[in-house]
Each structure stands twice: as structure tokens, then as C-alpha cells.
Fold these 2 entries.
Entry 1:
Amino acid sequence: MLKIGCIRCYVAIVLLAVVLVCVGCGYRSRSDLLGHIDSVTISPIANETVEYGFEDDLADALREEFSNKQWGEGTDSVFTGRIKVYELLPISLDQNNQPEQYALVVGMSFVFEDLKRNRVLRNEKNYEKAHEFYVVSDRGEPPETLQQAREKLIKEAAEDIVSSIVEEW
């Protein structure tokens, strides 16, 4: 039978282990590191693809995501980007070799600079985001049009990019 002193010691060790795991998991909110930044300028995004207008829609989505993080438009920081790839890839075919599922992919580079402290905080040369979607029914997900998939890809990419800048693991 365990004595009360041993049980308290065991509980203390378990609590200490839990605290150390939580503290040492590596997660840091960049809010501590970026507390001096209240605004961001989204520079015009260069588009090396034939998908006209994608760059403007992505810039608008980035502005919205930064705004959701309480960053307005201004000169504390700047985001610059270049879209290098925009592809529609079939990933699943039916028995007649007709596409049932596609992946819409955007590839780009971007830089996020802290203009107040004159330093580059993020320099991503090969960012890639894909949105997979079905164009036929009865696949567990409703079918999407190319326009719906494009809108979802833009939103998902903007959320992902902004989160990667504002938060760090």
C-alpha cells in the first residue's frame, strides 16, 4: 500500500512533467515578437501565370486575413509575392478516362518584412497550396465548379500564409 507522502510525490512529478511538456512544446505566438506591428501593406502581387486576376483576388483575401488578425493597412510591414504556378491537375478518372476529381494548385514565393525594425521575417521561395475537389456527384463531397474551387483555394492559401506569418511552431 502506498503512503500518502508517496502519492503526493507521484502527483507532483506528474504535474511537473505535464507543465514541462506544455511549456516545451515549441509553440510561440508571434504576437510577442510582432507586438509592435499594427499594419501591413500588400504590395501588388506579380503573376507569372495565365490565370488573369488571381493575383488581385489573392491580395484581397490576404488583406481580409490580416484584418482578421487585427492588422490594418499601413506601413509597419510589407508583404510582397509572386505567383509562379497555377495548375489544374486531374487526380481521379472514371472508367471512361474522364476526370472525376481535380487538384487546383498555386505555387508562389513571398516575403514578409518588418519595416519598423528593418528585417525580413519570412522569405518563402516555394510555397504551394492545393485544393482537391470533385466534379461529379456521389463521392462523399458535393461537386464543385472550377470557380468555386478557385475561390476556396484563394481563401485557404490566404489563411495559411497569414497564419504562418503570425504564428510560429
Entry 2:
Amino acid sequence: MCAIRAAWASAKPRSRGRLRGKIRAMTEDLFRIEIERMHRLRASLAELDAAERAAFVRDLIESGAGSADDWVLCARDAQLPPPGDWSIWLLLAGRGFGKTHALSQCVHTAIRAGVERINYVGPTASDWYDVSLFGPSGIMRTLGHGPVPKWVPSKRRLE
């Protein structure tokens, strides 16, 4: 990300529009790479038998690189963002599927990849606030080890 900041600082005001498009494309690529990495890890884990999988998770926890409740390890395949080239993900499922948690984790993954603007749509603003933001599986409750977002009530925005 330092290279992106340096390029932005050195760019002339007229060329910043083109640079903004390039930066957006770079962060989207980083997000897609992260999703592909999650799916490759899941495929590799599926090839292991139960004892090898347990040993891998134990080593991951002991090394401090992860925890047993890491989303990539405990999510169902259908709860992970789909691989490929997409810009909108509709997660349409029934009660108890884990939609809120899956989308919260997807938002955290996107933020860690450098995506700066994410549209997260809910039925109403209060539903989004109560369930998707501060609910038990909401964005603010599933932070993990990522950056801590700040809720700005006057703008009704998460920054």
C-alpha cells in the first residue's frame, strides 16, 4: 500500500483521476487474489484426512498465524465469496444460513485487501444498523485481527 500512497502523492492533480482508476483496479485485484487464496486453502484442507487437518489447525494456532475460529477454516463453502470476476455478490439464503456473518467476513477481507468503498445493502437503514453492523454477527462484532472501522452516525457511514 505504500507504493500506492507514494504514487498518489507524486501525481499531478490532472492525472489523479486516471491514477484513481488504476488504484481501484489494483485493490480489486488484491481482493480477488485473497478470495482465490481462501478457496485454494479450503481445497487443500479438503484433501487432508481428519488427523492431518487437525494437526494443521493446531500448528496454525500454535504459530500464532491463525485461530480455530478463523472464518476460512470454519465457514461452509457456500458462505465464502465466490471466486472469479464479479462486482456484486447476492447471498440469498434462508434463516440460519449465516448470511450476516458471511457478508461481514467478506467486508473484512475486502478492507484488508485495500478496497476503500463497499456498498452493503439492507432492507432498511435501521435493519442494517441493528443486524449487519452491531448485531451478533455484524461487522463490528466480527473484527478479528483486522483494522477497526469507525461508525460516523451523522453520515450514517462506516469509515
